[in-house]
Amino acid sequence: MDVETFEAVEISTRADESPAVSWAAMAAGATAAASLTLVLLAFGAGMGFSAVSPWSNSGVSAGTFEIGTGLYLICVAMLASAIGGYIAGRLRTKWAGVHTHEVFFRDTAHGFLAWGLATVLSAAFLAAAASNIAGGASSAGVSASQAAGSSGPADYYVDALLRSSPTAVPNAADLGATRNEIARILMTGLREVDIPVSDRTYVAQLVAARTGLSQADADKRVSDVIDQAKTALDNARKAAAKLSLWLTASLLIGAFSASLAATDGGHVRDNWNPGLTGQN
Asked: Which residues constitute the domain of residue 38?
């Protein structure tokens, strides 16, 4: 009778058999963080913290930006990033035979990468708000299309220039063409920080012709309105600079929160009792 001999082979799980990066877990954490960020920003916009809004044409406001808005941005980044990082650490694959220091590094990296992916996704949803912020910092939101006649920040200053006195005789010239021309002059001059003297003189002549003011009064009105526009431009730039600093702080705190929460989620994942569910 032949006796078959079976050789017992020990099957071990080596560290290099499991992928070091769990992309599915990172994508899940990033999706959760980005979604929660959008929800919290929409809630903040409803509560008055509208420096950054998920809706178009709702960006930074030089008059309403406050420290509370910046603190709310930090809270949003901390909460959303922490939840996303925890999910990424909790759902990642368990690494067998890996040193605890290496596990800690991998969990930290998972949280950081999940935060980075969530930031990219959030930026895609907040592209309109980011455009408003960049526009406020560079040209106070005055664009060529607005200067062509659509509603925009320059229209207020044009209205101030063309206010007629009670005794002014209406001019037969096309008011729309005059408004567009003055708007383009203001747009170009404010973008270059100052308006040339020749343009100021020309605008004053247009104002005098449209309103019936004397040339001296028209010159004074033009100078006053240009000073108002410069003040508004400076305020918009300062508000955009403050918002940029708060956003930088919130992003850094969000990255730290996601990395730390991922290590906590990974620790819970590794110490889960498989006997309760029969899973590894």
From this structure: 20-138+241-271
- End-to-end alpha-carbon separation of the chain, Å? 42
227 located within any domain: yes
Can you list the positions of beta strands (E) in the chain? Answer: none
The whole-number pLDDT of residue 9 equals: 40
Q: How far apart are CA 110 and CA 20, in angstroms?
A: 10
Dist CA 272 CA 280 (whole Å): 9
Query: pTM value?
Result: 0.63
Question: Is the separation of the CB atoms in 29 and 87 below 8 Å?
Answer: yes
Q: How far apart are CA 126 and CA 56, in angstroms?
A: 8
- Here the tokens at position 214 are 């004397």
Residues 6 or more apart in contact with residue 223 via CB below 8 angstroms: 200
Q: Do 125 and 27 sit in the same domain of this protein?
A: yes
Q: Please state, in angstroms and as integers, the Cα–Cα distance from residue 193 to each residue in 190, 196, 226, 280, following that order.
A: 5, 10, 11, 65
